[in-house]
Amino acid sequence: MPLILTVTPDQIHLAQPYNLRLAHMAYRIGPGPHLLRASIPVSLRGGYMVISDQQFDTRGDLNPFLQEVVRECSIRSFEGVICDFEGSFSVLLGKLISALGEGLARRNLPLFVTEAYASSSNHAKVIVSSAISGGSLRQRLKEVMEQYGEKRVAMTVERMAEDFYLPAPGGTGTTLTQEELKNRIARRGPSIYFSSELCAHYFTYMNRDSGAHFVLFDDASSIRKKIQIAHQAGITDILLVYAEVDDLLTELLE
Question: Which of 25, 73, 119, 167 could lock onto 50 through a cystine, CB 3.0 to 4.6 A?
């Protein structure tokens, strides 16, 4: 199964036995801007570089930073770069992605970006989340592939565990930890169903104070189904976050 598993430096040794491509969450844009790196093994080679925009100060000349990224990719034999930019859209970061896309394309290295920066580089692959609370995952993937191009879409599988008050017109619920989810199921013993449209499991329950609730969640079988749907749509780059699925990896890869 061609998956990319994102890991922090302290998770590398835990993830390596699964023989998946690792994406290293060890880099961020520092003042200057310059590429800052967390402590990772000197011998580390292969996988992907993941760059965060946390604490980016939106100032400076981009050229030194771009050169540092390319040099690090060369030294570490990275297969590509993932710009995990979570803040609001920044014009300077958009320019950075545009230049980085050009530089990496010349070296046949892919660049992955979040949807907010999809228009910043025609070379970049756009990371779309599998987590939806309404509609259809198949339709969602079809729409983004029509919007960005069939070869430009990657999918990140976000493991869902959310509790929604009904009705939920905003489509957002309260995120549950896995322990909270298990407790709700154990305490209420609900009938659990599978939504082929959302590609997730769900159940409902009544609360004396807050009324009707709808709980949507993933397990190994629903995640496998999401990956299958993405592959059927023609998406070959699938990302998983190690911290979200570490308890499911053995089952997922069977």
Answer: 25
pLDDT, tens only, 22-64: 999 999 998 888 999 999 999 999 999 999 998 787 677 889 9
Element (H, E) at 127: strand 125-129
Q: Specify whether 49 is located in the same domain as 125.
A: yes
In a shared domain, residues 238 and 187: no
Longest dimension (CA), the chain: 61
| CB neighbours of residue 146 within 10 Å | 10
Q: What is the pTM of this model?
A: 0.92
Same domain, 18 and 125: yes
Please tell me the total count of domains within the chain.
Answer: 2
CA 168 to each of CA 52, 163, 181, 188: distance values in angstroms, whole numbers, following the listed order: 32, 10, 19, 21
